Amino acid sequence: SDDNISIHNQIIPQHPGIRYLHIAEKAGRYSIGIFVFPPNAVIPLHNHPGMTVLSRILYGTVTVRTYDIIEPFVENTAEGKAEGEGNDGDGTSKSWIPKFMSRVWNPTTSSYLATYPATTETIASANFKPTDNIMNQRRIPRGSMHVYENSLKELSSSQISISELYPTKGNVHEFTAGKHGAAVLDVLVPPYDVDNDRDCTFYREDLDLAVPQRPPLTSTHPTHPTHEEDGANGIIQFDTTRKRKWLVPIPQPDWFHCISGRYGEIGE
């Protein structure tokens, strides 16, 4: 059984948290390793900036929660850092996430009115109603992500189970191991690299930011993606069949620890 297969307690040095067994890495190209989960352990919600990742379960079961990134409407400046950007704690880490510009929805005219520089102190309003007569002027924190929520995916060693993510598709994810723990082989292309703006940022769903699902986003920003062939006037229709959320950056959770180790000839 998976309970008998678990290698977590055989990794040295011993540690109760999630373990990482390094296999190989080529700077700027790829990294390969194995995450070993104790029972019910969680790798919290985090991103993979500009990366492609394949995750293959080796034993046990894992539930994967993922989000697709809706390309942000951004300005390419780097004023300050949002809470959670750069988790090294020494001030040297750089975040890949560009600064957002907030969009304020006017329920009276059914349009987004203007853009404002986002701040870390305020968040965008969630409570839009057709009867509202005024706009709520709260803002979206810098570094937040506008995403589509995907269905949960169950990975099991009883079948060939692979989770994959791309620069926007499934790029933000969370892993939760089953009752017997799990081991997951991870291949990252390219690997995380703080010096090349591929730092890892952790997130939480902002439950106070219930995104309105119906209104279109009007924008003339030349690089903003569109869900319809309408580049001339910049009108963007969101995919109304999917649930949209906002993810807000946070520091690495205090309860999360992933410690490198060695199992036989694997790891270092």
Give a verbal description of the structure.
This protein has 268 residues and is an all-beta fold. Helices cover 1% and strands 41% of the residues. The protein has one helix and 18 strands. Strands 1, 2, 3, 4, 8, 9, 10, 11, 12, 15 and 16 form an eleven-stranded mixed beta sheet that branches. A three-stranded antiparallel beta sheet has the order 5-6-7, with no helix packed on it. The chain has a two-stranded antiparallel ribbon with strand order 13-14. The two termini are 28 Å apart. The model is unreliable at 73-137 and 214-236 (pLDDT under 50).
Number of strands: 18
Report the β-strand fraction as a percent range: 35-45%
Helix content estimate = under 10%
Net shape: globular
Helical/strand content category: mainly beta
Q: Main sheet?
A: 11 strands, mixed
The average pLDDT value, as a whole number, equals: 74
Order of helices and strands: HEEEEEEEEEEEEEEEEEE
Gap from first CA to last CA: 28 Å
Q: Residue ranges: pLDDT <50 for 5 or more in a row?
A: 73-137, 214-236
Based on CA atoms alone, the radius of gyration comes out at 20 Å
Q: Helix count, per DSSP?
A: 1
